[in-house]
Amino acid sequence: MHIKLPSKINVMAVSALAIAVLNGCGEKIDGRQTEINQGLIYKLHSDTPFSGKISNYNPTKLGFMVHGNCNVEVAQGILDGPAECLTDSGAKLADFAYKNGKQNGEIKIWDENTKNLIVKFHVLDGYKDGIEEYYNPENNKLVRQTNWSKNSKNGSEKVWDITGEILLTNLTWKDEKKTGFVKSGERENNYIDGDEKGTQRRYTLIDGDYDSQKKYIAQTAVANLYKADYFVGLLDDGKYKVIDLEDEHKKSLDAEKKQYEDIKAATAQSACVDKKTTDYHMEKGETAFISNDMIQDWREECKSR
After folding, report:
1. Displacement of CA 138 from its chain's centroid (Å)
2. Which candidate, 239, 195, 135, places its Cα nearest to that of 231?
3. I need a surface site. Which of 37, 146, 157, 243 has the fewest CB within 10 A?
């Protein structure tokens, strides 16, 4: 029985393919064995940009402010491929990917304590592009939703309180101009094409009501932590007073107008009195005495004009 051996050419082709596959897998090293030089990742003491997988990579180098370490893939010194960040116990903190050094695809981040999702959004060539959603990890409720196009808000933007039940912001963005309403902190504003239109109010806490002040500060801090929002108007009735900003603005404009008219009148009166003084001296002589009564009479005459 004869066994046909593979030709030398076939053996070489298979060997070359095996080497290519092995090279494609790349080396696996620890993040502490790497360094960055002119924007490229190198293995320590190597002159060639690294290709392969890196474990225990510092998340701050990737722009993630989380506790733990990350696993990334690199091609020719550039981040390229799927990546993840984990806690020391192995729980997932972040899931994302790179393409030619830029973040691409969906990014997800989880809360370290509850292990629940905090945020997810889509990135295209390093720019936010698509829907971004933030969740309160304590109740899994959606608290912020924004539509992005190349890092600019485009389309719907909504923000809720921490319960996810009360809508506080409802905007539509077009050409970087917003239309809709915002209730945030001590303000309530309405917009059309980027300009304030309609109801504009300020909600002011009542002086001396320290319980309401403490509640407002505490609720605002929690809301900010989870990218939600809080609004003074959510406090119990009677815990704040409402100021109509349109009214306040009109009063301010009226006061400015009155001040302008007063200054204008005073300036005109002064010029009138100066002219009467000059005319008197031309008639009576430069050294002619002018009494206070005369000046007062001229002022009254000039005022009545």
Report:
1. 23
2. 239
3. 37
In terms of DSSP H, where are the helices of the chain?
A: 8-25, 210-225, 245-284, 292-303
55 Cβ partners below 8 Å, 6+ apart?
28, 29, 30, 31, 69, 71
Which pLDDT score is estimated for 22?
A: 40
Note the pTM of the prediction, 2 decimals.
0.72
Give me the amino acid identity at 280. Y
CB atoms within 10 A of CB 248: 13
Residue given tokens 């001396």 in the structure block: 208
Confirm if 43 and 33 have CB atoms less than 8 A apart.
yes
Q: Assess contact for 219 and 229: CB atoms under 8 A.
A: no
Strand 52-57 versus strand 40-43 pairing type = unpaired
Residue 30, number of CB atoms within 10 A of its CB? 12
Q: Confirm if 226 and 140 have CB atoms less than 8 A apart.
A: no
Give 127: exposed, middle or buried? Use CB within 10 Å, 0-12, 13-18, 19+: middle
Mean pLDDT by 10 residues, the chain (305 residues): 39 40 66 95 96 95 88 97 94 95 96 95 95 97 97 97 97 97 94 92 85 90 94 83 70 68 75 80 79 80 73
Residue 179 bridge partners (DSSP): 172
Length reported for the chain:
305
8 Å CB contact between 164 and 136: yes
List all residues 6 or more positions away from 59 whose beta carbon is below 8 Å from its beta carbon.
65, 66, 68, 69, 70, 85, 93, 94
What is the distance of C-alpha 5 from the center of its chain? Answer: 68
Adjacent-strand bridge partners of 203: 242
Are the C-beta atoms of 204 and 241 separated by less than 8 Å?
Answer: yes
